[in-house]
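BUG-424 | component: ligand-complex export | severity: low

The export step for FE2/S2 (inorganic) cluster jobs runs without errors, but we want the raw record kept on the ticket for reference. Input record follows.
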Amino acid sequence: MKTHSIAEILSAHEFFSDMKPEHIEFISGCAKVSHFASGKFMILAGEPADNFYLIRSGHTAVEIEIGNQVRTIHSPGPGEFVGWSWILPPARWRYDVRVVEDVSAISFDAECVRKKCEADFEFGYHIYRRILKIVIERLMATRIQMIDMYA
Amino acid sequence: MPLPMLPVPMRIRRRVKETADTFTIELEPPDGTFAFEPGQFNMLYVFGVGEVPISISGDVSRRDVLVHTIRDVGTVTHALGRLKKGDWVGVRGPYGRGWPMKIAKGRDVILAAGGIGLAPLRPAIREVLDNRDDYGRVVVFYGARTPGDLLYPKEVVKWRARLDAKVSVTVDRADRTWHGNVGVITQLVSAARTDASRTVAMVCGPEIMMHYMRIHLAKLGIADEAIYVSMERNMKCAIGRCGHCQYGGDFICKDGPVFTFAEVESRFRIRSL
Ligand SMILES: Cc1cc2nc3c(=O)[nH]c(=O)nc-3n(C[C@H](O)[C@H](O)[C@H](O)COP(=O)(O)OP(=O)(O)OC[C@H]3O[C@@H](n4cnc5c(N)ncnc54)[C@H](O)[C@@H]3O)c2cc1C
Ligand code: FES
């Protein structure tokens, strides 16, 4: 089976479409392949947001504790990014992300990406613009989720 | 032939509680046969209470039983919910223009249901899955409020196990016992992977859900002429005479309830219509 380099995997993803090859090459340098077993936590609320993830296979649950109940509010799966809290200070996670089905992901070193964004504004602009698009989509989805559409 | 306005009494042969507020009744047609098309509805009459339009949610190939899944939202649906096995319901129908099963043949099909919308769409889903070779890629999306609100869970599990159709289910919120998707139904759409130019989409649910689904289906390149929605308005005669269900220039009971989005676009989500 042909194995793809991280740069090849990222180039094929919608998020990186039309991005300059040298930018993709750079961000690939901040990334590695990671695996998480079902039941484990990829992210724990309150901890430093050192990494963020692009899920390749498997499923996760973004969880929030309300009283003594745990509610799943979103379930990122293949092709989706997990984790935004790394972008701005204080760069600490706000939710838990639990692995529901074994995950294979590309894990990005947040510090490495953040530094590059600050040093190279063009790179930073492309990254933030694409992240903003995803955040807007999530916000829209959350709004629809909140209106209790099926009531 | 029975008079179009005269309900035929039918006995309830089975009653199933689906969720906290939704139940299914199976009725016995008196002469043992009742033919309908997916997406059509009947007027169900509770003696002494009133009459409501309810879609037929059973199998088109099973003519010996008439299946209706009903959500208790008010006077008549509540009265229907109190009926037991052996009780009688007055039935008029089937009425209306249903899902575009003939048009969908040979094409990719997206069937998307939200909440109680799975009931009117189930005959179409069954028709497509039972005649799988007649269609291209088949994608089913189903969204509900919580796992406890999912209709026909055993049947949906069977659909999901099929290798020849992509069936995705999502809920708005869940606890840890739910291992499936959490999020809005529209987020599932981008994974449809159908050929937009030859896709027929059938969407059934609250208007707000159909509105958002149409936005996301359009993003895939599916034309409004190929997106079908089922509309609901109050009804009385159900045969295009009284004007109760008038929707712009159409009567939902006769010209619908299923319309292409292109047909209803200018009137969609206008509250006074
Ligand atoms: C073509 C068609 C097919 C339908 N198929 C089904 C079906 O398969 N299963 C099913 O459960 N229902 C279906 N409905 C909806 C059903 O007809 C109504 O829920 C019913 O008429 C309500 O009558 P009621 O006397 O129980 O409530 P009412 O006493 O008339 O109303 C009580 C409350 O319910 C609200 N209400 C009324 N109608 C609806 C509605 N459609 N949706 C949500 N809230 C409503 C009212 O605003 C009011 O607040 C269909 C409607 C149409 C037009
Ligand atoms: S209900 Fe009378 S015209 Fe439609």
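Assignee comment: Attached the raw record above. Chain B has two domains: 8-95, 101-268.
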